[in-house]
Specification:
The protein has eleven helices and two strands, in the order βαβαααααααααα. It has 208 residues and is mainly alpha-helical. The protein has a two-stranded parallel ribbon.
């Protein structure tokens, strides 16, 4: 069993239910909140970016070191902006695109986290993001930013991070019509969780 030291005071709001779905991962508190508050933010950031960059070395070997560094920065920044463990977002990226920033699915989803252009346009306009058309989703910054904003919106709608992950793939209308247990047990959800579990076994959680 993999035990992760994780002070409750800094635990992301989304991740507990996701981790609860992984039977081989156990969270344990080993530091009081007062100690956690003394951790230097810049060191947390450096550790997080370095860890994501290490994960990207396996997922995106054809990327240059500078490209991996830039992508790691994007993943860390946007993950922490929305309260996700960046390693969970890395798992989502690997499942969706295998770290290929310009990949396009048969259905028309684009980029790292495979966002549909119509969805991206709606999210960008709602939150005042710069929308440059579907080709703009090839930019890792905009792609991850829009995708995680959409995922966070889905969680607010369903009040359940696992159902939000299911809806990200299956669509919110379809998930709303499904039994929650069936949605949580969908092939896509299980695939993301397995990938996340594998990343946690190889790399430290970067939620701190």
């Amino acid at each position: 069993m993999l035990a992760i030291a994780w002070p409750r005071a800094v635990q992301p709001r989304h991740l507990q239910a996701i981790v609860d779905a992984i039977p081989t991962v156990q969270l344990r508190e080993t530091q009081p909140a007062a100690v956690a508050k003394r951790v230097v933010p810049s060191r947390r950031r450096d550790f997080g970016v370095t860890t994501i960059r290490a994960a990207l070395e396996n997922c995106a070997p054809r990327m240059s070191e500078s490209e991996r560094s830039r992508l790691a920065e994007v993943v860390f920044r946007e993950s922490t902006r929305h309260g996700y463990d960046p390693m969970f977002v890395q798992a989502l990226i690997e499942v969706e695109s295998m770290c290929r920033p310009t990949v396009r699915s048969r259905a028309g989803a684009v980029g790292l986290v495979q966002v549909m252009p119509a969805t991206a346009r709606a999210v960008a306009r709602r939150y005042g993001m710069d929308w440059r058309g579907p080709d703009g989703l090839n930019d890792p910054v905009l792609n991850v930013r829009v995708g995680l904003r959409y995922l966070a919106d889905l969680e607010e709608r369903f009040d359940d991070p696992i159902l939000a992950v299911a809806a990200y793939n299956l669509g919110p209308t379809r998930v709303a019509r499904m039994a929650p247990a069936r949605a949580r047990d969908s092939r896509y959800v299980r695939k993301v969780i397995r990938r996340y579990e594998g990343l946690l076994s190889r790399h430290a959680s970067v939620a701190l």
